[in-house]
TrEMBL record:
The lineage of its organism: Bacteria, Pseudomonadati, Pseudomonadota, Gammaproteobacteria, Pseudomonadales. Keywords: Membrane, Transmembrane, Transmembrane helix, Transport. InterPro entries: MFS, MFS_dom, MFS_trans_sf, Sugar_transporter_CS. It is found in: Membrane. GO terms for molecular function: transmembrane transporter activity. CDD domains: MFS_SV2_like. Belongs to the major facilitator superfamily. Sugar transporter (TC 2.A.1.1) family. It comes from Pseudomonas mandelii. The keyword Transmembrane applies. This is MFS transporter.
């Protein structure tokens, strides 16, 4: 079958989901998993680091926030770099950077150098997250795209739980430095990415590299045929053609603020900011607030990990619902559900720290909030064309990381005045604002190809 007259999107969208698609998913999801472990690990190591370096609460808070500062920088830069130079090289170098930075954290002899290395680690993680969602959205056909991206994001709660289990067993044995050393090892996955993950044919085509895009597509089609055990693939179906844009560094940034995409950008930036302000304002203090309610340190770590287990069925449910209900309603429901449960969790202190109420509301809070994460990572890259997808995703993530930076600080200011109930009420309000923004200004993207969702149609 002759396919060279068809676009990259037309050839990719007609491919049945195969074992080859699943290999791509597993490699990208594992990179996401180890990144998430590195990010979450500070929740469990901060107490030991604070004790060794004799840090004040303010210094410990600054150290905990340092990786988020790096993520703002990394997410902002990576999108523009990936839209200019390609998804694959930026994705590879992000993993190399966080691997090296994690190793450097294991060598830190004072809080200043550790803070610097955590910033570098944050840059690597900030680069990787939006590129992962862009790559997967461009390689998986529309009919399964939402489910796979939502499942990828589910590796974040798995990473959080794994970080807690790893620290629980290894921290008393090898100390916090060697745990950072262990976390540097997964950077070898960059080798798997080099050999198994292709560059996005959609990006190659819009960047003008048509011959390279055709070669990559032929390899993908061959591997799908081999995986399925077929000699023939379905015929491509004509899709809307999207206008190409000049490939200089800032063109994608201008595009996401053009009249065609301005409302989408304002909507998704607002959602990321308020959602992450609420999420990190609460989760970064979960263990500390448990201790404040009278639980021992070991109990607080145990309950924090236990509560996080609610995120696993949460992202699985979201991955199923985004293709049944659609992105917009699932986003609204998870945000509102997370807000209600956050408020109830905060009220557990009012009832004397009732363990049953605390665990039940905490599990349900994480169920909804990790479902929210799954929808956000699915929804964001679908709002932009290939020429600006990584930039749009990267800047939305960066704005969210600003919320991540502010969340713990705002919580620290509010807690002495309002107590635990006020902190979680504030978090609930943030989620409600984000839900309202999606409900009023959001668009539905379920079942549509990325090209159909683009407003810059030609022909």
């Amino acid at each position: 079958m002759e396919t060279r007259g068809f676009s990259a999107a037309e050839r990719l969208e007609r491919l049945p989901i195969s074992g080859y698609h699943r290999i791509i998913f597993i490699i990208i999801a594992l990179a996401f998993f180890f990144d998430s472990m590195d990010l979450a690990m500070m929740t469990f190591l901060l107490g030991s680091i604070k004790t060794e370096f004799g840090l004040s609460t303010a210094q410990a808070g600054l150290l905990a926030s340092s990786s988020f500062f790096g993520m703002v920088v990394g997410a902002s830069l990576s999108g523009m770099l990936a839209d200019r130079f390609g998804r694959k090289p930026v994705f590879q170098w992000s993993i190399v950077l966080w691997g090296i930075a994690s190793y450097l954290c294991s060598t830190a002899q004072n809080v200043e150098t550790l803070t610097l290395f955590r910033i570098l680690l944050g840059i690597g993680m900030g680069m990787e997250f939006p590129i992962a969602q862009s790559m997967l959205s461009e390689l998986i056909p529309a009919k399964k795209r939402g489910r796979y991206i939502a499942l990828m994001d589910g590796f974040w709660p798995l990473g959080f739980v794994a970080a807690g289990v790893l620290s629980y067993f290894l921290l008393p044995v090898i100390g916090w430095r060697d745990i950072f050393l262990v976390l540097a090892v997964p950077a070898v996955f960059v080798l798997a990415i080099r050999f198994f993950i292709p560059e996005s044919p959609r990006w190659l085509e819009q960047a003008g590299h048509h011959d390279v895009a055709d070669k990559v597509l032929l390899r993908i089609e061959d591997r799908v045929r081999t995986s399925l055990g077929r000699s023939q693939l379905p015929e491509p179906i004509r899709l809307p053609r999207v206008a190409s844009t000049p490939g200089h560094f800032f063109s994608a940034l201008r595009q996401i603020w053009s009249p065609l995409y301005r409302q989408r950008t304002m909507m998704i930036w607002s959602v990321w900011f308020f959602a992450l302000l609420g999420f990190y304002g609460l989760t970064s203090w979960l263990s500390a607030l448990l201790q404040q309610s009278g639980f021992a340190v070991t109990q607080s770590v145990y309950y924090t990990v236990l509560i996080s287990l609610g995120g696993i069925p949460g992202f699985l449910m979201a991955a199923w619902l985004v293709e049944r209900w659609g992105r917009k309603p699932v986003c609204v429901v998870t945000l509102l559900g997370g807000g209600v449960m956050a408020f109830l969790y905060g009220q557990s202190a009012v009832f004397g720290g009732n363990v049953s109420l605390l665990i039940a509301s905490g599990l349900l809070m994480q169920f909804f909030l990790f479902g929210m994460w799954a929808v956000l990572y699915t929804y964001t890259p679908e709002l932009y064309p290939t020429s600006a997808r990584a930039t749009g995703s990267g800047f939305a993530s960066a704005i969210g990381r600003v919320g991540s930076l502010l969340g713990p600080m705002v919580t620290g200011l509010v807690f002495p005045m309002t107590g635990q109930g006020g902190v979680f009420a504030l978090g609930a309000m943030c989620f409600a604002i984000a839900a309202g923004v999606v409900w009023v200004f959001g668009m539905e993207t379920r079942g549509k190809t990325l090209e159909e969702l683009s407003e810059a149609i030609v022909g």
